[in-house]
Amino acid sequence: MGIIEVKNFKKSFGKKLVHRDVTFYVHKGECLGLIGGSGVGKSVILRSLIGLEKPDSGSIVIDDQEITSMDERELSEIRKKMAYVFQGGALFDSMTVYENLAYPLREHFKYSESEIRKRIMTQLEEFGLSGCDQLFPGNLSGGMQKRVGLARSMMMEPEIVLYDEPTAGLDPYNTKKIQEHILRLKNKGKTSILVTHDMPTAFAVCDKMAFLLDGVISAQGTMSELEKDSAGLISRFINGEAS
Ligand SMILES: Nc1ncnc2c1ncn2[C@@H]1O[C@H](COP(=O)(O)OP(=O)(O)O)[C@@H](O)[C@H]1O
Ligand SMILES: [Mg+2]
Q1: Measured from the CB, is residue 181 less than 6 Å from ligand 1?
Q2: Is 212 in contact with 35 (CB distance < 8 Å)?
Q3: Which whole number is the average pLDDT over 154-183?
Q4: Is 38 in the pocket of ligand 1 (CB under 6 A)?
Q5: Spatial distance between the Cα atoms of 113 and 98, rounded to a whole number of angstroms
Q6: Alpha helices per DSSP H over 110-171
Q7: Once rounded to an integer, what is the mean pLDDT over residues 174-187?
Q8: Cβ-contact 56, 69 below 8 angstroms
Q9: How close is the Cα of 112 to the center of ligand 1, in Å?
Q10: pLDDT in tens, 24-40
């Protein structure tokens, strides 16, 4: 059905029931916007999709494979197809931009140094970062660091990209660069989930949205359905009338 299928996902932390029953699908090539107030469990869902967390019950199917019962070796195969763009970017401060980008390739593949260099230069160019390869993260602006983080996530050429608030705190220029990047990947047929509070970006890139509230997907729809349904839960959330 979908390249990502989450069914009856339940998860608690201690006594706190965070996900009561979460079900959603993302078809190949689609971008789903996952929205909801702070602390509703959006990041936990993204982390679960790459097997960094396990639901207490329910099913997660990625590309026809159930991942909740997989061991670390099987999960590492699944993770080759997927990129999780962290909230913070999470670069290694003691490594140059070049080494940061080379890291995932060296970790997972046996590419020649010239192949690695070629891929890095291509990614840096895509993100408007040509000439930054020998700089350290500490010498870059926040927006540039975020773009380096994104470029690094793309080194493995993932089929599925999970973005966790990629534009949070960014200026309009860097926000636009990130929107362009998400659209570029979508045009190549890649699938993505975008967790965000940045509604202009969601409307620029998403095909549909799902609203997480009280442990369930309480509303969902295509962007055009949502635009028409001004009294709906999602519209009210977007307009600051519901949390
Ligand atoms: N490792 C953890 N240990 C305990 N509680 C956690 C852990 N990870 C997340 N939580 C709790 O789960 C809830 C959802 O977290 P999160 O997915 O980060 O929310 P969101 O990304 O929607 O803001 C929060 O209330 C948080 O306190
Ligand atoms: Mg989060």
Answers
A1: no
A2: yes
A3: 92
A4: yes
A5: 12
A6: 113-126, 142-154
A7: 93
A8: no
A9: 40
A10: 999 999 999 999 999 99
Instruction: Count the domains in the chain.
Output: 1
120 lies in some domain: no
| 138 assigned to some structural domain | no
Token pair 């706190």: residue? 16
Is the CB of residue 211 less than 8 Å from the CB of residue 45?
Answer: no
Residue 210, domain member (yes or no): yes
Q: What is the mean pLDDT of residues 222-231?
A: 86
> What length does the chain have?
243
213: containing domain: 1-72+192-243
What is the residue with the minimal CA distance to atom 16 of ligand 1?
Answer: 41
Q: The tokens of 213 are what?
A: 């509230």
| 22: CATH | 3.40.50.300
User: How many angstroms separate the alpha carbon of residue 39 from the centre of ligand 2?
Assistant: 7
Asked if residue 15 has its Cβ within 6 Å of ligand 1, the reply is: no
215 within ligand 1 shell (Cβ under 6 A): no
**What is the C-alpha to C-alpha distance for residues 207 and 193, in angstroms, rounded to an integer?**
10
* Ligand closest to CA 36: 1
CA dihedral of 131, 136, 142, 187, whole degrees rounded to 10: 50
User: Cα separation of 131 and 189, whole Å?
Assistant: 29
Query: For the chain, what is the radius of gyration of the CA atoms?
Result: 18
Assigned domain for 3 exists: yes
Mean pLDDT score, 63-79: 95
